[in-house]
Each structure stands twice: as C-alpha cells, then as structure tokens.
Amino acid sequence: MTEENRTPVDDLTFRQGMDELDAIVAQLEGNTLELEDSLAAYERGVALLRNLRGRLDTAQQKVEVLMGQMEQSATDEEIDTSLHKA
C-alpha cells in the first residue's frame, strides 16, 4: 500500500493498528524491502506503536479509575485510631 493510500494511524481501530504493525514487522524481518521502503515501513511502524501505546495507557487509566470507584471508602470503625489509644 502506498503512503497516499494508507489510512491515517488515528483512524485505525486498535486491532487494525496491531495487524498492520505485525505485517510491518514481518516485512522488515523478511529483509526483502529496498532501503527506502524499509525506512518508510519503519517510520509507519513507529507511528503505529506510539499510537497503540497511547491507547493502552488511556485504557489502563480508565480501568484504574473504574476500579477506584468500586472500592468503598473506609468507615470510621475501619480507620486506625491507635494514636488515640496511647
């Protein structure tokens, strides 16, 4: 696929991005591309990787927020009052 015909990285679904990244890695490992094509593929791979990591970080933050909402806040009985007992 030529540079002009590629879907912008931000417009890909996570799965599409992963699939394309896997294909790029396979191409680069195959060592069949010309130098210029290898550089272009590597550049696209870096862009995909940066985007996918950002999405994973965002998803992780959302999960942490949701997990935090599930935790109940401590009641007065559960709070350590050992300083008052001394």
UniProtKB/TrEMBL annotation:
Key words, A-Z: Cytoplasm, Exonuclease, Hydrolase, Nuclease
UniProt enzyme class: hydrolase
Example of a GO cellular component annotation carried by this entry: exodeoxyribonuclease VII complex
Localization in the cell: Cytoplasm
Nuclease found in the keyword field: yes
Record's catalysed reaction(s): Exonucleolytic cleavage in either 5'- to 3'- or 3'- to 5'-direction to yield nucleoside 5'-phosphates
Protein name from the UniProt record: Exodeoxyribonuclease 7 small subunit
Species in which this protein is naturally found: Cryptobacterium curtum (strain ATCC 700683 / DSM 15641 / CCUG 43107 / 12-3)
Organism taxonomic ancestry: Bacteria, Bacillati, Actinomycetota, Coriobacteriia, Eggerthellales
